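Saturday, quiet lab. Running sequence design on the structure tokens for the scaffold JK sent over.
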């Protein structure tokens, strides 16, 4: 029943994309159509469609353009580009050539090519490599618990992965140094990481990841440190201990296996990693974390 609910919502998104290819389609709009939080929508969509929402949009636009080029010779290439949602002929031509191996003008001019089945394979994906490696390993049967957790006041710093991940480490050290400067002990603290973006969708250099540490008493934040709160409520929680690929398997299990069968949907807040052991104890290559997804019951 729950799986059917998810599939129905994702199918509504697919239909919306197909019916509005000429319009601007962004994640916030599609998440609203699905009725899911935009923080979690892309992972849910990818789990069911095996491609990201933007891959679907790009693929359908180019496939419709190919159809129009082959069967509507009265339409100019510029008209087709606008009709399928590309802002310019240059962008349309570049993406068309990248996908099919030749420019749209060649398909229009070559009768033999118009009558053939043109190249349909997907372009290379820029996915987080750990997810691809995780799917090659033997699946792990993670135990998922549902916990009702209280709100947690935190100090937070925003970060991006950057070119090689060093920006994340810098942000974490800045937060923990600030924390210690206020008289706290970092080794005894509750530390969190929050994935603002989906690592399978967002390029690594743009991938946003916030660090936070629980507050033990009131204080004033400043500079790059924000004072906020991790909301209370229901969470799907699993324990993961291992390398980055194991962490990828854990998140895959939550979003692809557990969540669609659970009777729950994610609330509008980022997925959370709570560090049971920090990098000071086990380094940055190993992880001992609780993976947490804020959830609520499906309302049929």
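Result came back. Writing it out in full:
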């Amino acid at each position: 029943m729950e799986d059917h609910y998810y599939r129905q919502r994702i199918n509504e998104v697919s239909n919306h994309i197909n019916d509005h290819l000429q319009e601007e389609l962004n994640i916030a709009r599609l998440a609203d159509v699905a009725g899911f939080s935009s923080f979690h929508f892309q992972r849910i969509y990818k789990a069911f469609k095996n491609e990201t929402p933007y891959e679907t949009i790009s693929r359908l636009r180019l496939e419709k353009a190919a159809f129009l080029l082959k069967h509507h010779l009265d339409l100019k290439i510029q008209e087709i580009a606008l009709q399928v949602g590309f802002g310019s002929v240059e962008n349309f031509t570049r993406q068309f050539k990248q996908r099919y191996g030749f420019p749209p003008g060649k398909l229009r001019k070559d009768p033999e090519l118009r009558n053939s089945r043109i190249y349909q394979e997907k372009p290379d994906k820029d996915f987080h490599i750990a997810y691809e490696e995780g799917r090659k390993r033997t699946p792990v049967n993670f135990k998922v618990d549902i916990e009702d957790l209280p709100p947690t006041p935190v100090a937070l710093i925003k970060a991006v992965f950057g070119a090689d991940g060093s920006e994340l480490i810098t942000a974490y050290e800045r937060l923990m140094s600030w924390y210690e400067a206020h008289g706290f002990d970092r080794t005894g603290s509750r530390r969190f990481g929050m994935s603002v973006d989906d690592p399978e969708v967002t390029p690594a250099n743009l991938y946003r990841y916030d660090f936070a540490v629980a507050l033990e008493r009131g204080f004033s934040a400043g500079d790059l440190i924000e004072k906020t709160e991790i909301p209370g409520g229901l969470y799907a929680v699993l324990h993961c201990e291992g390398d980055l690929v194991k962490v990828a398997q854990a998140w895959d299990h939550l979003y692809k296996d557990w969540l669609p069968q659970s009777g729950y949907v994610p609330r509008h807040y980022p997925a959370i990693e709570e560090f049971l052991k920090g990098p000071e104890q086990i380094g940055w290559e190993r992880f001992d974390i609780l993976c947490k997804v804020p959830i609520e019951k499906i309302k049929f």
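Notes for JK: The chain has two domains: 2-114, 145-297. The beta strands are 145-149, 152-157, 191-195, 209-214, 226-230, 233-242, 264-266, 271-277, 287-297. Ask whether to fix the surface positions before the next round.
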